[in-house]
Fold each of these.
Amino acid sequence: PKRDWSSDVCSSDLSDMKAFLLIAFFLAIIALSMASEAIDKAATTDNFQDAEDHADLRVTPRIVNGFQIASGKYPWMVELTIGTGGSASRCGGSIIGAYHVLTAAHCVIGEAANAVVAVSDCVDLDSCGGSSQQLTSNAIYIHEGYNNVNYDNDVAIVKFGTAWTAAPVKLIDNSLKYLICGGTPVTTMGYGTTSEGGSTSQDLLGVNLFMFNRPACKAIMGSGVSDSMICAGILGENKDSCQGDSGGPLIALDISLNPVLVGDVSWGDGCARSDKLGVYGDILKFKKGIDSILAGGTEFIAGGDEDPSCYDVSSSTSNDEGVCCS
Ligand code: ARG
């Protein structure tokens, strides 16, 4: 006689299978919801803030706007309060010498020598740690070529009477000029507004961007982009610096993964618009003037450290359109 496998063994197998599938289904649902929670969390708190991560292009940027900078990571970062009372304004800056902070000229133009109060090494302005310093300026040096209308040469150095304990950030020089070629991963940071027209942040926030060559930047941001400006952003995303971040750093990493100051926050078209870039002062172009102030000079002279042969000569009219050798 034939045995009907399907009715005895298999039917019990089938109901086992159904139970198994049901359990598997619920387990999968739980796993999925846990995974999406983890991704949400990554999107708001993770920040590929490790230098190794930042330099690694295989890591996809996961932050829509900004991320919190880890305490002590950039001790040379300073918050500047310019003026007092209701007219006080906020900018960013970078310690570049024992007594010197680099910022944007438009932050400090027309201000008295002692109008700037700077706070270093602070990731939360409501409670800066013990290594933070607060100093008041005693001199301001504006780049001699600064143009208050088009923000050409938007850089200044603010001097303090007491030395900063934080080591200065490394400045870009000619040997590192490749860092400002289009495509380089860069980071900017500050305590500025967290959206266009929004309010400023008490926490130090950073955002990871990419460099754009100047010709590409001009095509996007217009002819207002001069030879003293460099651009960074991510098209299609809403990441940028904003009001209150001006003067703050744009950094890239050298081969030892040390931060290198390549730009200072200068201007944009609104903030974080998906089809726009942020425009930064080109520190390499300001190098001679910076060095002379650091050496005790009192005039922020024009002149850079760039190698003209590095420029993109594919430009039809002049050799100053690009910034890259490649
Ligand atoms: N000018 C602004 C300031 O004073 C900075 C603007 C930067 N804008 C931008 N979209 N990246 O703080």
Amino acid sequence: MKNEMWSGRFSGASDELLKEFNASLNVDKTLFNEDIQGSIAHATMLESCGILKKEELDAIIKGLEQVKSEIEQGKFVFDIKDEDIHMAIEKRLSEIIGSEIGGRLHTARSRNDQVATDFKLFVKKSHIELLKLLKELIQTMLEHAKVHKKTIMPSFTHLQHAQPVSFSFYILAYAFMLMRDIKRLQNSLELADFSPLGSCACAGTSYATNRELSAEILEFKDIMPNAMDGVSDRDFALDLLYDIAVIFTHTSRLCEEMILFSSSEFSFITISDSFSTGSSIMPQKKNPDVCELIRGKTGRVYGNLISLLTIMKALPLAYNKDMQEDKEGLFDSVKTAKDSLIILNAMLKEIQINKENMLNACKKGHLLATDLADYLVREKNIPFRKAHFIVGNVVAQAEAQGIDISEIKDLSKIDPVFDEKAMELLNFEFSLNSKQSEGSSSIASVEKQIQILEGFIQNL
Ligand code: ARG
């Protein structure tokens, strides 16, 4: 039986197995809204070019709107035999308005430019949604940053104590990563803002169409200038997958630190009960599952990027059915990113900062050693390498006494090069605020950083 829309040249019916294997409906039905939007723009353009009559356009738009509400209300019968969402919608349209008119919608269009357009519209929408969620997460970080300018904690290099910083300074480092994530999305959105609609199969059409018009209706900035590129390009999907992968690089680092910092070894923070889970066997357990899951989900979003890169690699022009495999991973990455950003934000809002524990941790690991060396260079005109050596000796002596250098009562007893004034240095807040370089951990610099981020967010 010849029931497929493309069955004109076929004499036999396609195998049941092939139908199932070939179908993408279960995945691409997500695009129903974009498909209807795209079809209305296309039909409107056809009518304005005299290719469709006004009554035909009206019937098509009315029919498409009915299809949309049937899908929204769950009344639409999805049948895998229709292959994909594009065919399913067109078939239903013809059932509603008759194939004499319904069959005219696909004039001067192919499924190749249709699917590229729908997918691009979805990608553009996802950019906007992610941008908003990133902005909200930055706002939460800024709230913490404003409160904790004087909350002192150790910073780490090699996961060993390095120098004292404030919790504000620490959390702002993440806010700046997210600012770049937003800029990255904005850049990708700009590159994606060209309409492939009207490229047709791969070579354009013999109809005098107006691609600018359909692009304008769909709110694209411009059209893709080459039809073959128009149907073959999936850079816009790769860009979004990469942007999401980088977001997860950042959030997985933050989550890893939240896991560490909430452990009893650190106890820097407490994650609220509403975002922690228990153990089925150990009654005392409170686990940071949200952070672990976000860290774990990083694997699937990296995988989705690699998967599409591999699908597109060495693919001959123009459309190939391989490209039908482009959507599932992207839909998954977008959903994973949206869900993760929402819950991370909610969790972060409620996180408790344990100031005492953070400060106590600063008293281990000789965090003030660099300040002492800088002091010798600045006040005593000693070359930095020599100062480094002198302070190394102070550290060794403190270690021998089993104390931290911040607990030394009289520095001059260890080395006469230190005078009274040097004792001022053995104070964590003093250390923080003695930083003078741009971008440092001093309160003044942190305030400037907050301003930069607030200005950025306001202009979004
Ligand atoms: N379902 C297909 C996809 O997602 C639509 C394009 C089909 N084009 C074709 N020439 N068979 O890629």
